[in-house]
Recover the amino acids of this structure.
């Protein structure tokens, strides 16, 4: 049977710690080249309304440690409104019922057959969080207690979960541009994490004296600046432009997620995509030589060292998602789902065929 | 609702003529750049048995003429045995019940939502046939009556259907290495097409005097040679190595399917993939300058001329599949399925989500 799982199943079945462990295991295969990761591609055509685009995104990976291949697909109507002075990429919930469309398909690398299908939303956040968590595990001071969090949206929750999974965090100071939103976030996550999450009125108040700074915004502008860097800090980002290039250059040790950092963009004629257009969203590439930076999987495998001294400034740039993460985290999720008897069983015959295509 | 269709539905709903018409319409958008086509990627890791590999293949496309995006995925255990002296790529039916795994997912470019899911086997053949049929429509002599067919497998049937959809074919002479197989093919397709399909004992007997030569094998060796070229012939191939480079150079007019002809290969360390290895399967690339050849969509749109004289030798190389074909043909299929009330309706909510991933 092929398992159809929901976001609720993902949330219930796979903890952040388990997701970090899955990446920790699988990334060793990435370091030795045993696993494969197919670079993300984004295709764009004109969207259904003025200023909107239709975006079809996919990425693949095969994780031998879990015996699975994964394809992750996002099918979105996208807009780029300006909020609080920052340009943001926003998906429009244009599917029936005001919903979004993102799917992960998991396949067995032993038989080829489809093992599971599930929405990508929860696993997406888990694996982003787990990636930065895994990096923090190798790069943040072992006695890190105080976290500055920039952002209070969907990904900010994942980042908070992840740092709490790898360090004995005592306090998270959270800043985001919308006061009500950051206050609601602080209440929600104080409860969920059992850690004091405090809303603060400026980014400086969030990051001053922090052992770990987590950027978790959906802006395509810089949100953390060089003047805020302090000795011993670990800086962490989930989007390339969040950390000012000068701040990255101040770090003693910079690690990126993947060197193959440019998605394949397939853009229809006459279409202007803000993040593809030569512009500030991606200027970081021009100033930092990504190809010279060590990658997370090499740090995980131990072929590149992590933090060496307490006063070092370290920096992890989660510069692009990898299809491989969905294979690794999806593989761990699938094992747990099978063990728990979770999900809706669909006949595998629906998704297989008797012809050699 | 999201439609789950079967290969039987595809076979019943979409005729070869309709598939050719769908490509004819959609390829005009490809010529003007309005449609997008994301290059195929093949990922390989070690397979479950000695000499086998696990292959995860994907390709995407968005066809504005049908308002759909498509992702096509193949998840296969693959081997490369030698049959009758030729190396062949063969998929192992390793999924439960001895089945293969290939899927097409169709999405609306208006709402993002999943419109349909179906196995790729029948549409795969239809779109390959339709591509060569569309090319033959522009390149073969308008009075072509005699066809030489090399191959008697799954794709050969599609090629025979396609040429009969665009020309008043009177006779198809079929050669393949296995006598019983070509005789069975001839019986089956004579009935299906209402055209005399004759099995012959040599490739020369198939192609001599033919107006159209269709190569439809799964070999990675040359099967059609320069010495067989005759004035006025249209040569057609579904795999790069089928036609000897010298024969291609003899043609007055050569058209390829797509210039972006190299799949992205993501190969795990220590894995040897015969078709990726520098070797005869792909040597054509080194001898023919693909980047200088006109592409089918430009011929379809009329920006590059088709056949100009009766005695010209023309040649179409269906050198790689395109994700765009699944969007175009899948879009036409979906319209017919909706109109016919065909398929199994699955709740779209199974494949959508309320979180912004």
């Amino acid at each position: 049977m092929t398992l159809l799982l929901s976001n609720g199943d993902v949330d219930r079945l796979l903890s952040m710690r388990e997701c970090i462990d899955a990446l920790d295991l699988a990334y060793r295969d990435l370091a030795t080249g045993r696993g494969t990761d197919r670079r993300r591609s984004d295709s764009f055509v004109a969207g259904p309304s003025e200023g909107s685009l239709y975006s079809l995104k996919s990425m693949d990976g095969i994780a031998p440690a879990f015996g699975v291949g994964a394809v992750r697909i996002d099918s979105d109507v996208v807009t780029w409104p300006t909020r609080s002075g920052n340009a943001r990429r926003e998906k429009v919930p244009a599917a029936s019922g005001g919903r979004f469309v993102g799917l992960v398909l998991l396949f067995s690398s032993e038989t080829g057959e489809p093992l599971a299908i599930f929405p990508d939303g929860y696993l997406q956040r888990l694996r982003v969080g787990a990636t930065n968590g895994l990096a923090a595990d190798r790069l943040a001071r072992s006695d890190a207690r105080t976290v500055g969090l920039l952002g209070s949206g969907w990904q900010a929750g994942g980042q908070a979960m992840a740092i709490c999974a790898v360090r004995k965090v005592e306090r998270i100071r959270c800043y985001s541009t919308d006061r009500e939103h950051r206050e609601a976030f602080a209440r929600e996550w104080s409860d969920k994490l059992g850690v004091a999450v405090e809303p603060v009125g400026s980014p400086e108040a969030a990051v001053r004296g922090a052992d770990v700074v987590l950027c978790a915004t959906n802006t395509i502008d810089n949100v953390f600046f060089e003047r805020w860097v302090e000795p011993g800090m670990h800086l962490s980002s989930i989007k390339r432009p969040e950390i000012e290039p000068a701040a990255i250059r101040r770090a003693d040790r910079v690690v990126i997620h993947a060197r193959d950092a440019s998605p394949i963009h397939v853009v229809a004629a006459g279409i202007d995509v803000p993040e593809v257009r030569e512009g500030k969203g991606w200027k970081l590439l021009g100033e930092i030589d990504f190809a010279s930076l060590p990658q997370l999987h090499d740090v995980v495998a131990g072929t590149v060292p992590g933090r060496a001294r307490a006063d070092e400034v370290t920096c992890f740039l989660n510069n692009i998602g990898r299809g491989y993460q969905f294979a690794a985290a999806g593989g761990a999720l699938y094992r747990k789902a099978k063990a728990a008897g979770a999900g809706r069983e669909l006949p595998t015959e629906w998704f297989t065929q008797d012809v050699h295509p």
Q: What stands out?
A: Chain B has a mean pLDDT of 93. Chain B touches chain A through 78 residues (CB under 8 Å). Chain B has two domains: 2-123+323-351, 131-317.
